[in-house]
Design a protein that fits this description.
Length: 320
């Protein structure tokens, strides 16, 4: 697992630095002592970032600079390198590892060295179990769930194997199952793309699940839409033809009914005329009434009237 390798590398810096500085506890036969500059070369190659930088700076100086760095400078640089290694564990570890590292950084240099020696192992293993549990909770495929449960029921090595290649292998198996399900339920284009993915590599499977099946499903939808439009147009044409024929039939029926009504009206008129003629022939002719004889009018005689007298002049009134 990449994260575990990072943790081991961080701890390895501490171990190499301590080993170079302290040297072997016993040796048989005793090798000749290294010169101070040779010790700096070893620290430059195997020390932490600050130890390497300090050794390089001392090598470019005088013998007094070399001696001073080995006497006091290397210890200070190693202390800071150890704390940097613990901080790296915080950045790559889980909650248990980070919590333990923060407690160590608040302690002494001995606490830091103990943590880098083997104190990080148990918190790291706890974080690995937490990580497997999270994968199990988020998993949707049967293969990943089964592999995660087996790891949690096994040893530390089983958990590390699952977090390494195991989880990806289980996920690949679940991905193939997902492709098969889409193949069984998809349209023609989806089935075609799914078969191509199942016949290809793992990358082909991933591409199909990420993008390919959506493109194929869209093509199936377009084909289905065109087919549906053709079907709807055909059905609409049939309905229009049926309605047109029904209108024609209704027009014929209306014309027939109108002609029948006209014929009935003509027959009724003819029958009424015939009945009137028959009634006129059967009824007796009434007698002509005798008109009374009227005497001719007598001529009117105009009566003569005496002529009207014209009034004469009026007499003047008497004097007073």
């Amino acid at each position: 697992m990449g994260v575990r390798r990072a943790a081991v590398a961080a701890v390895g810096v501490f171990a190499l630095t301590v080993g170079v500085a302290a040297g072997p506890a016993t040796a048989d036969p005793v090798p000749p002592p290294q010169s101070e500059r040779a010790q700096l070369v070893a620290l430059l190659a195997a020390g932490g970032p600050l130890v390497s930088a300090g050794a390089e700076a001392a090598l470019t100086g005088t013998d007094a600079d070399v001696h001073a760095f080995l006497a006091t400078g290397v210890a200070l640089c190693r202390t800071n390198d150890d704390r940097i290694a613990v901080q790296r564990m915080i950045s790559v570890g889980g909650p248990a590892t980070s919590s333990a590292a923060n407690r160590v950084l608040s302690g002494t240099q001995a606490d830091v060295q103990a943590y880098l020696a083997d104190g990080w192992v148990q918190p790291w293993q706890n974080d690995e179990r937490i990580q497997v549990t999270r994968i199990l909770t988020a998993a949707t495929g049967t293969s990943v769930k089964a592999a995660a449960n087996r790891a949690l029921s096994g040893t530390v090595a089983d958990i590390e194997a699952f977090l390494g290649p195991g989880v990806q292998q289980a996920q690949d198996a679940d991905d193939r199952i997902s492709v098969q399900l889409l193949l069984n339920s998809g349209g023609a284009e989806v089935r075609k793309a799914a078969n191509a993915a199942l016949s290809g590599t793992t990358d082909d499977i991933h591409y199909f699940l990420d993008t390919g099946w959506q493109v194929a499903a869209q093509r199936d939808q377009e084909v289905l839409s065109i087919s549906q439009l053709v079907t709807l147009a055909h059905a609409a044409g049939q309905r229009a033809a049926t309605q047109t024929q029904a209108a024609k039939d209704a027009s014929v029926r209306a014309s027939t009914a109108a002609q029948a009504a006209k014929d009935a009206a003509q027959r009724a008129s003819q029958e009424a005329q015939a009945a009137q003629n028959s009634a006129g022939q059967a009824a007796p002719r009434p007698a002509t009434p005798l008109m009374p004889r009227i005497a001719p009018p007598m001529p009117h005689r105009r009566r003569s009237t005496p002529p009207r007298r014209r009034p004469g002049p009026r007499a003047p009134p008497p004097p007073p």
